């Protein structure tokens, strides 16, 4: 592609801002369009695994991340009823050594701000707030800036408007699960929550992931349970009816965890939706990344990481290919197998985390037979993606 020609990016979330910075590294200017008048990231905590942090390092963002995030020493799997330790994957310094990049946890808003500050200070990037791009994205961008772009990148999330302009694109579907977010100050958290690790408490009907957030001197909790769809929204307000449904899933859990969940002052929930397999581009001038292309359930904690990987890969393709259609084809070829494998891992984790009866017993036995190093090796394909000497698959 001609590097002097600006690329248009629809959406200024983690995917869109990372996309702009990745393009800038290749000397490609970008206009980023966001319909909101301010960038307020929805959500709470975020796990940034080495496959994503490696790309953020390449963008020069590691010092800013280290100022706000924590690098837990391990990821632990724990029985939610008995609090018995099932398995542990070493992270912290060992993540940096094994996967050549850190494993960090932070508030989503902190990552959003770091990306936003970098975009605003990058001469190749221009941010356009309060600018809605709908219908024909290229035409809408042309109206907004007086120039029709040769490439539009849809980075506008699960309910993507850009996706509606692509024939054969995937359909949004409710997964059957609801995620609850809770933020707890350290003083209100259970003694079983550790500031040195990410803990996944497992149960037959639900699981709960907890990890520290330096920004609030407390913990981020994400509880995932079966539930009914809540409509086309990211978040829902807490209510007595919803809270009762939520509490039932944890009624057989350890009393300390159950009490902590029930007593949380506030919580938000959102339906976990996915985007089916479908077209990611129109073969001419429009392509999707991140959740807009392939939203998946969070059972592998890879949603944001896949968007960051997409941005890096697509930027390389646009820089190296002669035209947009060629770049789109190469991008899709590089990413389809990767996304499919991560989806399968998320589906496996859901099965394993929510196992019951004989399957739960078998799961616990298998985990007991595997040591920390073996469990870490099982993640080399995921966390080592893009590292020198490792396969990108």
TrEMBL record:
<protein>
    <submittedName>
        <fullName>Salicylate hydroxylase</fullName>
    </submittedName>
</protein>
<dbReference type="InterPro" id="IPR002938">
    <property type="entry name" value="FAD-bd"/>
</dbReference>
<keyword id="KW-0274">FAD</keyword>
<keyword id="KW-0285">Flavoprotein</keyword>
<keyword id="KW-0560">Oxidoreductase</keyword>
<dbReference type="GO" id="GO:0004497">
    <property type="term" value="F:monooxygenase activity"/>
</dbReference>
<keyword id="KW-0503">Monooxygenase</keyword>
<dbReference type="GO" id="GO:0071949">
    <property type="term" value="F:FAD binding"/>
</dbReference>
<feature type="domain" description="FAD-binding">
    <location>
        <begin position="6"/>
        <end position="344"/>
    </location>
</feature>
<dbReference type="InterPro" id="IPR036188">
    <property type="entry name" value="FAD/NAD-bd_sf"/>
</dbReference>
<dbReference type="Pfam" id="PF01494">
    <property type="entry name" value="FAD_binding_3"/>
</dbReference>
<dbReference type="InterPro" id="IPR050493">
    <property type="entry name" value="FAD-dep_Monooxygenase_BioMet"/>
</dbReference>
């Amino acid at each position: 592609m001609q590097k002097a020609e600006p690329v248009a990016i629809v959406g200024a979330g983690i995917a869109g801002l990372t996309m702009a910075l990745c393009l800038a590294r290749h000397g490609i200017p970008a206009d980023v369009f966001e319909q909101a008048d301010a960038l307020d990231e929805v959500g709470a905590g975020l796990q940034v695994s080495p496959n994503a942090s490696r790309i953020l390092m390449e963008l020069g963002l590691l010092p800013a991340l280290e100022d706000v995030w924590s690098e837990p020493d391990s990821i632990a799997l724990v029985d939610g009823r008995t609090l018995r330790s099932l398995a542990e994957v070493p992270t912290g310094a060992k993540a940096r050594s094994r996967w050549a990049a850190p494993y960090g946890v932070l508030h989503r808003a902190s990552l959003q701000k770091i990306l936003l500050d970098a975009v605003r200070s990058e001469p190749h990037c221009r941010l356009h707030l309060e600018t809605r791009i709908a219908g024909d994205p290229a035409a809408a961008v042309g109206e907004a800036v007086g120039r029709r772009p040769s490439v539009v990148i849809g980075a506008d999330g699960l309910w993507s408007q850009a996706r509606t302009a692509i024939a054969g694109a995937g359909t949004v579907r409710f997964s059957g699960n609801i995620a609850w977010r809770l933020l707890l100050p350290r003083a209100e958290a259970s003694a079983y929550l550790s500031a040195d690790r990410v803990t996944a408490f497992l149960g037959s009907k639900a699981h709960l992931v907890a990890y520290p957030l330096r920004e609030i001197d407390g913990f981020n909790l994400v509880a995932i349970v079966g539930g009914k769809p809540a409509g086309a929204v990211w978040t829902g307000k807490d209510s007595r009816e919803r809270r009762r449904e939520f509490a039932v899933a944890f009624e057989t859990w350890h009393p300390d965890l159950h009490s902590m969940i029930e007593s949380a002052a506030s919580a938000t929930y959102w339906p976990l939706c996915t985007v089916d397999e479908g077209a990611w581009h129109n073969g001419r001038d429009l392509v999707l990344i991140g959740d807009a292309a392939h939203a998946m359930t969070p059972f592998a904690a890879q949603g944001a990481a896949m968007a960051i990987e997409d941005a890096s890969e697509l930027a390389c393709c646009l820089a190296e290919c002669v035209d947009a259609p060629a770049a789109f084809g190469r991008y899709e070829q590089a990413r389809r197998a990767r996304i499919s494998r991560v989806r399968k891992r998320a589906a496996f984790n859901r099965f394993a985390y929510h196992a019951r009866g004989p399957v739960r017993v078998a799961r616990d036995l298998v985990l007991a037979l595997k040591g920390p190093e073996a469990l870490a090796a099982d993640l080399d394909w995921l966390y080592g993606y893009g590292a020198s000497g490792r396969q990108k698959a």
